[in-house]
Amino acid sequence: MFVGGFDIDSFVLLAALLLIVGVTVTKFSARLGMPSLILFILVGMIIGSDGLGIIYFDDAHQAQLVGVIALVIILFEGGSQTKWSVIKPVIWPSLSLATFGVIITSLIVGVAAKYVVDLTWLESLLLGAVVGSTDAAAVFASLKERNIKTKIAATMEAESGTNDPMAVFLTLSFIELIMVDQPNYWLLTASFFWQMGIGLLIGIVLGKVASASINRINLDSSGLYPIFALSFALLTYSVASLSQASGFLAVYVAALIIGNSELTYRHSIFRFNEGFAWMAQILMFIILGLLAFPEQILSPEIMGGGLLLSAVLIFAARPAASFLSLAGMKYTWKEKVFLSWAGLRGAVPIVLATFAIVADIENGSVIFNIVFFIVLTSALIQGSTLSYLAKKLHLSGPKKETPTHSLELISIGRANAEIIEFQTDDQTPIIGKTLLDIQFPNSVLVSAIVRDDELITPDGDTVIQKGDFLYILVARKEKKKLRQMLKA
C-alpha cells in the first residue's frame, strides 16, 4: 500500500509533478531512441522506497487494478486508431503469432527457467507463460515513434492486441495447476475456447452497440462524447470478464469496430483517447516501477538469471516462435527477423507477474523480480534498436504525412452538421477537378484547403491536387454519401 507523511495538498502536488515529469521524459525518450516505458518505470523506481523514499508501495492488488484499467484504455485507443483495411491482410499471421507463437515462446522460456532459476517445473512454466506475449502498450508507443512498413507494423499491432488472452489463459492455468491438487484438464481446455469465442462475440456486439449509440444520442456538450465512448471500453471489458471470457480481446475487437465506423465527434473522441491513453501509460508504468524494489531486482541472483532468460527469450524463443508461426505465409526472412526482434515485453508481463504474488505462490516474488528484469532488458535492448534494424533490413516505411497546421475540427450539435478532414491521394477521384465541376451533395461546403502547409481559401475555380487537406462542412445525414464519393 501507499505510505507517506504528506497531506492531500502535497499528494496533489506530487501527482502534478509526476505527470509533468512523465510527459517531459517522452521527449527525452525520442531523442535517446529509448522506449518511454523505460523512463516511466525508472521514475517510479527513483521515487520509491529504495530510491528517494518519497513513496512506499508494495500492494500487488492495487498495482494489478491500475494495470488492468490502464491496459483497457491503451488497447481501446490503439484498436480505435487501427484501420481494418490495413489489418485485414495480416489477420491470420497475427493470430498465429498470438496463439502458437505465445505457446512456443512460453515453453522455451519455461524449460530454460527450470535450469537457470531454482524453481519447480510448474513455476518455471508459469514464468514462461507470463513473458510469453508481446505488450500492446510498448508496441503501440513504438509504432507511433517510428516509421515501419505498413505490413509489418500492422502485424505487430494485431499480434500485440490479440495475444493477451493466450498469455492470461496460460498464466492462470499454471497458477491453478500449482494451487490445486487434482486440476481438471478438460475444463482448462474448454475455458480457453470459451474465453476466445465469447470474448470475440462480446467485442463485436458491444462495438456495434457503441457505434450506433454514439451516432444516435444527442448530448448537450461535445466533451461528453469521448467519455461516452470510453465508458463502452470499460463496459466491454467488465462484461467479458464477468462472463469468464477475455476482456482484453473483447476491448480490442470493440475498438476496431468503433474506430472503423462513421462516428459523430470522431476527431474529439480520438484526440481525447490519445491523451488519456498516454496518461494511463504514464501512471501504469510509474506504479509498476514503484512496486519493484531495485535492491531485489538488481541482486546478483535476479540479474544473473534474468540476463540468461532474456537472452533465451530474445535470441531463441521469440525467433523460433516467429519463424514457426509464420511458416508457409508470405513473409520474407527479413520480415521474420524483424518481427522476431520486435517482440517487445512491457506492462502485460509485469501485470501478469502480480497474479503469482496475489495467488501467494511460494516463489511469486522471485518470478515477479525476474519478469521485471526481463521486461527492462527487452524494452531497452530491442526497443531502442527497432529503427536501426528496420533501416538495415530495408523495412522502414515512408514518413507519415500529418498536417503541421492547426485547425480544430468541430461538430455543430444544433445544426446536426460537422466539419471533417480528408486528405487526397492517388486514388481520390476528384483530383484535377475544380470545385464547380465536383457534384457534391447540396449540404456540402469545402471550407478550407491546406496545401504544402499553406491555407487556401477555396472558390469555384480552385483545383483539387494530390496531398491536399480538405476541410468540409457536411450535414451528418450526408456524411456517409460524401465519404463514398471521395473514396469511389
TrEMBL record:
Bilayer disposition of the protein: Multi-pass membrane protein
InterPro entries: Cation/H_exchanger_TM, Na+/solute_symporter_sf, RCK_C, RCK_C_sf
All residue ranges annotated as the RCK C-terminal domain in the record: 407-488
Gene3D superfamilies registered for this protein in UniProt: 1.20.1530.20, Regulator of K+ conductance, C-terminal domain (3.30.70.1450)
Intracellular or extracellular location(s): Cell membrane
Residue stretches spanning the membrane: 12-30, 37-57, 63-79, 91-113, 125-143, 192-211, 223-240, 275-293, 305-326, 338-359, 365-390
Protein name, as recorded: Potassium/proton antiporter
